[in-house]
Known about the structure:
Elements: H1 17-31, E1 37-41, E2 45-47, E3 52-56, H2 64-85, H3 88-98, H4 104-126, H5 131-155, H6 158-171, H7 189-193, H8 202-216, H9 235-239, H10 241-244, H11 249-259, H12 264-277, E4 313-315, E5 317-318, E6 324-325, E7 332-334, E8 339-341, E9 353-359, H13 366-397, E10 402-405, E11 409-410, H14 416-419, E12 426-428, E13 438-445, H15 454-471, E14 474-482, E15 492-500, H16 510-513, H17 524-536, E16 542-549, H18 562-575, E17 578-585, H19 592-602, E18 606-609, H20 615-633
Amino acid sequence: MSQMNRFIQFNNEQINARQMLHYEQLTRALSHAPYLSLTERQVLELRPKEQALSMSVFWRHRDRAIMHAGRLSDIYLLAAGFWRYFSVQPFLELLEDLQGEPNGHLFEQLVLMAEEFRLMDAVEKERPGTGEAFNVRRRVYLEFHKQQLQVNLQKGFLADATLNYLFVMAHEGSMQLDTSSMPDFFEPLQFTWQSLYDARSTEDNIAVVYRVMAMIAEHMEKDLMHTYYAVMDSIAEAAKFNEHKGVTEQEQEQGNKEEAKETIEELFRTWHRESQSDEGVHMRYELEHGNEGKAMSTEAEEGREGAEISEVGIGGAQDQKDSVQQDDTDDVKKLPPEKKRAGKYFGEEHRNVIFEERRIETVREASSMDDLVTWRTTQEPYVKALMAEFRKRMAQKEIARRDHLTKGRLSSKLTTFLIDERPKPFYKKNSPAKPLDAVFGLLVDGSASMIDKMDETKQAVLLFHDVLRKMGITHEIVSFYEDAYEATEEKQPNTFEWVHKLEDGAKDSGSAIMALEAHEDNRDGFAIRWMTKRLAARDEKHRFLLVFSDGEPSAFGYAQNGIVDTAEAVMDAEKKGIHVMHLFLNTDMPSEEQLQLFRMIYGPQSVAADSVEKFTDVTLRLLRKMIGLVIQSG
C-alpha cells in the first residue's frame, strides 16, 4: 500500500503557531477586546464580521528581527491606532463621493497612507515603547517605496509612482531622491503634502488629499494599478449594520448619521454584541408581524446566555434515511439526540461542528483476537519490567519508621525517661503507599492517513492501556475524526469513539482497541478542547493528555487556521493544569520541517517515532516519564 504524506506544501512554508498566538494576545491587550482574532493576509485589514485584524505578509522572508518588529508595527497600527483614532463616518462619506471618479482608488489609498502617518505618531506618543518597531517599519517601507517609485515610473504607472513619491516625502523628504527624471508636477506637491504634520483627525487628512488631488488630477490618465492599503475594505459593508437588524430604508436615512459608528472599536463591539446575543437555546427569529398569545408547545425552554446547544432542529420531515422532504414543511424533525452542536464553546473555528460521542463497535473476529493475544504476549516482558520499576520507586517514597520523636505513638522502651535529659519516647509507623493520584486521556487520530500504520498504533495504544490498567490509574482512550464527505460550510460532522471511558476503571478494553479504524479527516484543536473539558472536571492532582497523530490538522475549512487553533487548544489545556504530550506517528524518519511544526504546536512535549516498529518503544518511554513524574511529586 502506498504511503500517504500529509506534509505536501507547495510554498514550503509553515506558520509559527505559538508566536502567532503571542501576537494575537498582544492584539487583544492593546484593543481591550478579548474576542478579537489575528490573521495574516496580503495587506493590513480590519474585518468586523469575522472579528479579526490582519497583519500583512509584507514582512515574511526577511531577517527574523525585522520580521518580528514589522509585525509588531502592524499590530500597533491596527489595534492601538486605527482601532481608536480613525473616524469611520467621514471616510464612508468620502467613499460615496468617490464612486465613479476616475482616480477614486488613488484618492482612497492616499487618505489611508496619510492616516498611517498620523496614527503612527499618535501611538508612539501614547506608548513610547512602540517607537523601535515603527522605526523599523519606516526604514523598510522607505526602501520599498523608493524602489517601486523607479519601477513604476519606468512602466508608466504614474498614479502608483505618485503614491510612492508622497510616502517618501512624508517620512524622509526629497533630499536623497534623484528628482531629475521625475515628472515636473511632483515637486510642487511637497508644500501641500507637508500639511500632514498638522493633521489631527481623519477629516484633516481627507482635506489634505483633496488639495493634492486637485493638483495632480489633470496629469493622471489611469488610476492605481496596485493596492497598498486594504484596511477599510470591509468597513463600508459592516457599517450598514442596521440592515442586518431589519431596519427599514426610511429609518436608515433618518437615523444613520445620528447612530453612525464613529470608531473602528465601536463598530467591532457592535458586531460582537450582536453575535453574542445569538447564543443560547432560545429562538433566533426576528418578527415584524405576529399574533399575540402563548405558544402551544409544552416543551419550551427558556433561553440562557452561553448555554450549550445539544440538539439542532432542521426544517422538513425526514424519512428513515434522514433525507429532508421539502414538501412536508409542517413537520420539524431534530437531529438524533446523540448529536451535539459545538457552538462557540470549543472555539470560533468549530462553531459549525456537529459531533457525536459513542462507544466503538467492538470486533470479535478470530484473527483480531489472535493478534490481541500475540501482541500482549510480546509486550508482557515490557509491562512487567515497567511495573517492577514503578513499584520500586514507589517503595522508595514510603516513609520509614521514625523513632525518638516528641509526639506520635508511645514506644515500649521507656528507659529514655531515666537516661535522656530531654526524653523523646514516641515513634511513627511506616506511611502506607498511596494510590497514584493521576488521570490520563489519550486521543488517537482516526484520519485516513493512519490506514498504513493502524496495526502499530493499536499495539502502542494496547501497551498504554495495559500499563495504566494494572497500575490502577484512571484513563480514557478516544478515536476522533471528521466525516469529510458530509462536511459543508454550515455543518462539519465529527465523531468521538470511546475505546475506554474514564468510568470503566480497570476494565479490559483490549477487544475495543482492536476495533480502531482509519476514517477521513482530523480536527485536532477541537478534539483537544473536547478532551480538556473532560479532564478539567476531574479531581486528580495530575492530569495528562496524550495525542497520537501522524500529521498536521486537516479538515473542512481548517487547513489554514488548524495549526494556530491546535496550538491555542494546547495552551488552554496547559493553563488548566493539564500536561499535553504528542507522539508523532510516522512510517519514515521525520523531516526537520515536520519536527519544527509539532514543536510550534505542542512545544517541547512532542516526540517522534521514526519507524512503525518504534511506536511501542516511544509509548513506553512516554509512560515512564509521566508516571515517574506522578510518583516523584506524590
